[in-house]
Amino acid sequence: MEPTGASAMPEGLRGRRTSGYESGRPDVLAHVPDSAGTVLDIGCSTGLLGAALVARQGARVTGVEPVSEYAAEARQRLAAVHAMTAEQYVATGSTDMFDCLIAADVLEHLVDPWTTLRDACRQVRPGGTVVVSVPNILFWKNLVRVIRERRWPRDPELMFDATHLRWFSPDDAVQLVAGAGLEVVAVEPRYWADGWRLAVYRRLARTGLGPFLGVQTIVRGRKVA
Q1: 39 touches 99 (CB < 8 A)
Q2: Distance CA 36, CA 16 (A)
Q3: Is residue 145 within 8 Å of 153, Cβ to Cβ?
Q4: Edge-to-edge, what's the strand order for the sheet holding 80-82?
């Protein structure tokens, strides 16, 4: 029997987390090469991102998901789902190889995301792609809230999700990917804005205010060897 670290979600929590945890993540999808035939999605949730990859390019997607409700739904969409934590999956020593690895807003939940990402990248073929997304702790609204409340918030979702164990600035995100032995090929701040607000954010991003404007940071890396 496959080892499992899956756990049930507390009653009522899923509804509060739907917007943040159950998404096809088109922003992450855009960084996955169309040529990727095999994809490992660590923290796949209900498998909606993987399903989008299947629909777009017929990829074979393997998911890793520790929440039992999410894993059960992901199994209906993906080729395979390991119901365990990212650390447990890496510890299995799987020799399966992939064209692309995705770790979208999962690494901040780990005790040692640096080692886990580095070890997971062993399953990426040379020349393969790694896409990492992490929340930006420097986002200005986060800083204002901490200053205003004079405490560290603990919420059911988003930046101050109570299950977050690590926090990353944009520079930290880049170092996380580079530290896994990858060549950093793209860095994209994600602005939760549109229209004129998005235009203002993009203009201000060219100034020293840039690190404080993005809600998330997406980093794309390439395995060079």
Answers
A1: yes
A2: 33
A3: yes
A4: 80-82, 60-64, 38-42, 98-104, 124-135, 216-223, 182-190
Cβ neighbours around 173 below 10 Å, total: 25
In whole angstroms, give the CA distance from residue 118 to residue 182.
9
Neighbours of 113 (CB within 10 A): 23
Q: Which two tokens stand for residue 35?
A: 């040529």
pTM score, two decimals? Answer: 0.89
Q: What's the CA gap between 142 and 81, in Å, rounded?
A: 34
Q: How far is CA 127 from CA 33, 42, 133, 182, 184, in A?
A: 11, 19, 20, 10, 12
Q: How far apart are the C-alpha atoms of 135 and 101, rounded to whole Å?
A: 18
Cβ-contact 39, 50 below 8 angstroms: yes
pLDDT at 17 over 60: no
Q: Helix (H, G, I), strand (E, B), or coil: what is residue 209?
A: coil
Rounded to an integer, the average pLDDT of 151-174 is: 93
Q: How long is the chain?
A: 225
Q: How far apart are CA 112 and CA 94, in angstroms?
A: 19
Residue 218, classed as helix, strand or coil, is strand
* Residue type (1 letter), 13: L
First to last CA, the chain: 33
What average pLDDT score do residues 165-178 get? Answer: 97
Take residue 147 and report the two structure tokens written for it: 């200053």
